[in-house]
Amino acid sequence: MPMAALSLSPALAFAVAVASPLPAYETRAREMRTRRGLISYPGMKREPEWRRSPEEEKTTNNRSQKRRRRGGSGEDKNLDDEGRPVSDKADLFDGLPDDLIISILCKLSATAGSPSDLVSVTLTCKRLKELGWNPLVLAKASLKSLVIKAKNWSDSAHKFLKQCADSGNIEACYVLGMIRFYCLENRGSGAALMARAAMASHAAALYSLAVIQFNGSGGSKGDKDLHAGVALCAHAAFLGHVDALRELGHCLQDGYGVRRNVAEGRRFLVQANARELASVLRSSYASHAAWRQNHNHHHALASGCSLLSDYGCNVPPPESHPANKFMAEWFAQRGPGGGKGDEGLRLCSHTGCGRPETRRHEFRRCSVCGAVNYCSRACQALHWKLVHKAECAPMERWLDAAAAAGGGPPEVPGNE
Q1: Which residues contact 226 (CB under 8 A, 6 or more apart)?
Q2: Backbone angles phi, psi at 85, to 5 degrees
Q3: Does residue 392 contact residue 259 with C-beta atoms inside 8 Å?
Q4: What are the tens digits of pLDDT across the range 262-275?
Q5: Fewer beta carbons below 10 Å: N end or C end of the chain?
């Protein structure tokens, strides 16, 4: 294939441009696999004519005569010594070793901003298509390259995520685990995939497993394990997961699954707020400019502030993980319960969560209005500051609860 027909990345184009045979006096390099087979890369000079035996010279002349005869008929004009068709101009891409191509594809996969960035390269030619599905390339796929919209979900998308997960991609394990556990209702394999990601210290997977343990998701009320949930939440909080920090802070304040320690719980909540502010300050210049604009205005509810409004700072709500976005889109189209007898299942009222109930009355509801329900205290605290603080009714009970809790959200008791 001529190089002009390829649409390659700058790194690959640079590698092709600099690839050239070594001088004749260069020693032999080790054999490497290329599109043309095993060769001594970057190239081996053909033996000089004077070193060929008479039998080899006769064979070479016969092949040359065959090529000339075929060229006269208009068929098979360009054949090599082995009788294989070759292009008129040397294609240096065929001489590149597979290891080099895979290395470049790994870097492209790790920096891909969307699935199309990786797919478009694999559609360039047959060789890139084969090497693009190499486990080393799939293991390096970035989170953005794994983002799939719920409306585009298909067997091929499922297969792609599964191949990435089988190749050792931790983000793919978590995303596919969440989809299988909540959307496809395949609880066993979904939890196993999330556990694989959690064992690799994936903070979001650790927190998701903690939520499952707190609620007994996928089982009955007796399957709750509060101590295991606190342990998983503490590990995720240690890795810097903001929602896990909030959840752990509320657990310590309420004595939920752990010995009550109000002072320590408040410290974790303050630390979660500080990390939330730090993540905003590390964002792009546009996001920082938007934060400053919101900070100059004192309309907390209108600007969509988060928990930092308690300290006079208004920042945009935290961005949801692609797995949570997928679930929110999935259940917005299909509803939280697709099976028989699942009509009463509800979604977490925090729009950035997307988690549904796996059994009736699994989530806890607001003790004041009873109109909203949450999978965790972290989601309840976020939704309270973002939306529910202005909507919770009746107002008298809201004021009493706010005064009793020191301005915080009302308690969210369980329904079971």
Answers
A1: 213, 214, 256, 257, 258
A2: -70, 140
A3: no
A4: 999 999 999 988 88
A5: C
